[in-house]
Amino acid sequence: MAVGTAGRLWARIGTGMAIAGAVGLGLVAMPAGAGAAPNLPPVSPEDLVASVEKADPGPLNGTVELDNALGLPAIPGAPDLANGTKEARVWSDGTGKGRVALPSDQGEKTLVSDGTTAWSYDSTDRTATKKAVTPGEHRPEAADPTRSAADAITELRTTSTVTVDGTAEVAGRPAYELVLAPKPTERTLLREVRIAVDSEKRIPLRLTVLATGSADPAFEVGFTDLTFGPQDPSLFTFTPPPGTTVKDAPQGDRTPGGKPAGAAPTVVGDGWDTVVIAKRPAPEQAPQGTPDLSRLGTPVSGSWGSGRLVTTAVASAILTDDGRVAAGAVPEQVLTEALSK
Amino acid sequence: MTTLPVREAARVTAAPAARAVGLRKVYGRTVAVAGLDLEVPTGAVLGMLGPNGSGKTTLIRMLLGLTRPTAGTAELLGHPLPGVAAALPHVGALVEGPGFHPFLSGRENLRRLAAAEPLLDAAAIPRAVGAALDRVGLAHAADRRFRGYSLGMKQRLGLAGALLVPRRLVVLDEPTNGLDPAGTRDVRAIIAELHAAGSTVIVSSHLLAEVEATCTHVAVLQSGTLVAAGELRGLLDAGTGGLVVVTPDVEPALRALAEAGAVASRDTGGEPGVVVTDGPEPPEIVALLVRAGVAVHEARRRRPRLEELFAQLTEGS
Amino acid sequence: MTITAETGPPTRAAAPVGRLLAAEVRWVFRRPRTLVTLGLFALIPVLIAIGVVVADRDGGGGLIGAVAGNGLVLPIAALTVALALLLPLAVAMAAADALAGEAANGTLRGLLLAPVSRLRLVGVKAFGVLVVAAAVALAIAVVGVLAGMVVVGSADGGMVTLSGTTLGLAAGLARVALVTVWVVGQLAAVGAVALAVSSLTEHPLVVLASVLGGLIAFGVLSAIPALDWLQPWLLTSGWSAGADALRDPITLDAMGSSTLRALCYAAIGVGFTLWRMQRRDA
User: Fold this and answer.
1) B-contacting chains (≥3 CB pairs under 8 Å)
2) Which residues in chain B are contacts of A9 at CB distance < 8 A?
3) In Å, how far is A21's CA from the nearest CA of chain B?
4) Neighboring chains of A (3 or more beta-carbon pairs < 8 A)
5) Out of C115, C162, C274, closest to residue A13 by CB
6) pLDDT tens profile A230-264
């Protein structure tokens, strides 16, 4: 019994089970390896960009993952900006109705737009915020790779070298890798922006931002899961559940996931070395929850005045003592020049 | 027991109920059992003797397959060690004290054990449990929690566990621990019953009187080795006994014996007399004493008590 | 170890498995400790319900906050809260009693001498631990549903999801059942690992301490950003997935992957226990 042949057999089976379990754990733990780059017919960068601008994917749903390695300092009151991974589930009917779910461990933010009304529901305080939207101004998605990639292409085309650099598989779909690299005259911290474009639907599936001097992406947003096809229409309607506080979003207040709409910022330069200069709201006017930025960065000064410089892997910002903020994906010098103008 | 009843004699020639060949167990640097050979004839009642730490329990555990031997093999009811489990349904054992759950009653504890007994049908379990409890005299306390049992009751329950099914071999490790004299008598009676029913019994004990009273065979362990094994009578006869002469004339007897070159001393226990431990053969001694005018009331060969034999065996080494 | 048909008793070499399992379950539920544990676990949702009603929506965020006026969330919230520490400890206790406790009592010896083969012993013990895991999870779920409906009350008899939609009673109960099954799966993994520890020792407290220590170690490891890569290996990192059952549409990815991970842990635990029990002195 203690050392019976059956016992030995079962000891071996036990060992086998334990090893199989460990291997299985490894398989569960390891991310699915990227498949071989798919073979796709060659396409010119111009055609690819043109097709992206015309793309109409129709109804779809999927999961978007945002991987932030921008290296922003931890700002009290704004933990969402710190490094990390976030996930969003998106549904779109292809005609301007959409739904986004931003899950957290114990709650969820839900954004629903039925084309005329945008609802934002927060499960943690059970409030629903309602806002009228004009058709065309739709897409509440802040982290939609399709949207942000299309914007990036429009914005950067003229100042970039655009190439098609092979193929990739994103969310199980074959895609072209469109690469936008700054022209040599551009003074920027960025090395390139890579956009994976779905080979069939021609929508961007993934946007990757690479900074100079680093092989790992500083920022990446892309689908991890994507299905095209008709969506349940009930997804795009929202009825506040019982026990919900319903608020109307006042005009000029924050849009869901957006920035405070204040004085229009000044834009200096274009393309990769664009610098945005804006007025900061005075601390006492700041709405509840605005991050306290007064202790960040290192002091700098120049002909433009003095302030504090905050740098990350892909961007720099100067917060001047006179209440302005200048930011861009550029080195410090470009910022100070812009401030001096 | 020099002449076995025919029934038993036939069985003894069959495979031994238990056998150890070169059985050895080493824990770290401690040698618990040092390569030991032992055969327990079928139908025998083997008393396993030895001081604490002599390897009795380890030997029993190896025979039952509870402990893996470092070397050697064991055999139980004809099943060699890798498969002793095949013999276990026919083996009842009480090893290292009774193990039961304190929160269950004696009956519940036995039922749990009985559920695991291959030879019991589900329908027969309540009856078997009741019978075992009766047999060890625990029927009155069967439905009390084990937690509240006295040491003796716990021991009795352990015994009941070994007797749930008619067994071919019963192994009892220190069965009378914690039992009062009445309990000890009960255990002796149960061993005698088992023996009469043809079961083989292995009893380990440090109570020599108990072994002497109930056993047909003895194995004496000392520091993990077997210093003596065999039939109880044979071992006792082989021991140096001497001659006890009962006589009122102690002094003349001692004088006469000393003159004849015999070694003798005054018998300190019982009736007045002398003990001759060395010298001529008994008939010559009796003749010699009678010639010397000593009144010989009785002369008998003295059998050593097991206790003395045990002392000789374990202290001599 | 041949298993012969149940006909001729004298030829049978092992007791029927069903009888062994029944005896094990009977033993598990006659243990006062198990019953006390079940009672305490049934109290958890009741206490949360009372707390939520007393706090009246000031209970803060998180799943507990979502219970207010939304009773069907209570069992899921209670299961998620208990899964962090209490449920694993209850299962660890069962696993500790299963082998280490039986060894300490000397009763393991009795079972092996009956004989119960060591393979079957592991199977029977694993089953017993699983039964305890299911019992404690069910206690929370059932009492949670009742307390949720009676004490907290629910919106229109349904369940408001985290996504702001309202599910009917049947759909809500199905979500509760899903989370309960998922929790039992996670507890099976804890139980298997605890059983492996239990096969190594004669001291039940060592098992409890190991599981507690393991939970703390996993918690610490998952809190260190530099060890992010370790996350997918840790059993505990999937333990917030129960909240996914409260989303609409439901997403099963996290529950699925954590269940797979739990199965792997269970295989490791049971495999090790099998290996170890073939060698163990009893």
Assistant:
1) A, C
2) none
3) 28
4) B, C
5) C274
6) 999 889 999 888 888 898 877 544 444 444 444 56
CA proximity to B32, closest of B14, B56, B9, B50:
B56
Domain boundaries along the sequence of chain B = 6-237, 242-301
Maximum CA extent, chain B: 77
Tell me, yes or no, if B89 comes closer than 8 A to chain C by beta carbon. Answer: yes
**Alpha carbon of B227: minimum distance to chain C alpha carbons (Å):** 27
Burial class (CB in 10 A: 0-12, 13-18, 19+), C247: buried
Class of domain A45-248: mainly beta
Name which of B60, B63, B84, B88 to mutate to probe chain A: the one with the most chain A Cβ atoms within 10 A of its Cβ.
B84
Q: Hey, of C35, C102, C113, which one would you mutate to test binding to chain B, going by the most B CBs within 10 A of its CB?
A: C113
> Are B83 and A3 in contact (CB < 8 Å)?
no
Cis peptide before C115 (omega within 30 of 0): yes
What interface predicted TM-score (ipTM) does this complex get?
0.86
Q: Containing H/E element for C117?
A: none
Separation of alpha carbons B93 and B170, rounded Å: 6
- Alpha-carbon gap, residue B150 to B148, rounded angstroms: 7
Spans of all domains in chain A: 45-248, 266-340
Residue A242, classed as helix, strand or coil, is: coil
In sequence order, what DSSP letters do the residues of A58-95 get, joined into one string? -SEEEEEEEEE---PPPPTT-GGGSSEEEEEEEEE-SS
**Which residues is A117 bridged to in the sheet?**
A132
Give the pLDDT of residue A138: 45
- pLDDT tens-digit series, residues C17-59: 999 999 999 999 999 999 999 999 999 999 999 988 888 655 5
Report, at the CATH architecture level, how domain B242-301 is classified. Answer: 2-Layer Sandwich (3.30)
Cβ of C166 within 8 Å of Cβ of A242? The answer is yes
Dihedral of CA atoms C64, C68, C74, C77 in degrees, nearest 10, equals -20
Half-sphere exposure of B19 (CA within 13 A, CB side): 14
| Mutate which: C79, C81, C160, C163, vs A, most A CBs within 10 A | C163
To the question of domain B6-237 being in CATH 3.40.50.300, the answer is yes
Q: Is the minimum CB–CB distance between B27 and chain C shorter than 8 Å? A: no
Is the pTM here over 0.95, yes or no? no
Q: Where are the beta strands (DSSP E) in chain C?
A: 159-160, 166-167
In tens, the pLDDT along C102-157 reads 999 999 999 999 889 889 999 999 999 999 999 999 999 999 999 999 998 876 77
Q: Does A5 touch chain B (CB under 8 A)?
A: yes
Report the pLDDT value the prediction gives residue C189, as an integer from 0 to 100.
97
Task: Report how far residue C114's alpha carbon sits from residue C122's, in angstroms, rounded to the nearest whole number.
Answer: 15
CA of residue C261 relative to chain centroid, distance? 15
